[in-house]
Amino acid sequence: MRRKLVAGNWKMNLHWNEAMSLVSDLVKNEKDWNCDVLICPPSPYVRHTFEFLKNAKSAISVGAQDCASSTDGAFTGEISAGMLSSIGSSFVLVGHSERREYQGERGETLTKKLQHSIGAGIQPIFCCGEKLDERQSNNHFDVVQTQLEEALFAMSNEEISKCTIAYEPVWAIGTGETASPEQAQEMHSFIRDQVATKYGDDVASRIRILYGGSVNAGNAKELFGQQDIDGGLVGGASLKIDSFLQIIQSA
Ligand code: PGA
Q1: Which is deepest, 25, 116, 143, 201, by most CB within 10 Å?
Q2: In the chain, where are the structural domains located?
Q3: How far is CA 236 from the centre of its chain?
Q4: Is 96 noted as a catalytic residue in this protein?
């Protein structure tokens, strides 16, 4: 039985005081939830968030939104997975569609990020998903399959068991338009089948596949009720305490 994961991706939002007040509100409202909860604040906030959660004996984890594709060296502005691990990050998003779009990340770069994060003891959440025109032209399965094959499927059997997948149709991210539960379930089941073909049924039945793209308090329950949806990667709705708590409670 897979335990659900609800992850908040804050992106480049919230200044320090706002961020810390959100973490504090989350901890104040923490209960024995039915899912794992993760927040991914901007990297400069990771250390303090980690310490705050630790001191509060919170079960909430903290993660980063990206890591470098190298381990160390002359890469101005980059932050390695090892550094993130050393400041308390236990997860990292890899291949988010915004990084694919604005930084041109794909293929080997993402494979390195996955491998370095696993090497540093951080669990990567590998993001994939098609754009609107790709769905409209009925190429969405091919696009997602290619994204899996050119990065995630370079992982060994041992490595893949440390990975989580997030399916995030680009047309649903930040648009208010969500994939229907049926559309999401169809793709999640396809992704699980791809994992089964590559790594076997046992690995496929254990890997968590999150849905992301305009998850909100109103649609989370139905999405999370689908057989192959193991939680959510939540952007906008994770920035407000009420909506994020309702999403967590929907899991
Ligand atoms: P959204 O973002 O929930 O605001 O659509 C999700 C994401 O990009 O991870």
Answers
A1: 116
A2: 5-250
A3: 14
A4: yes
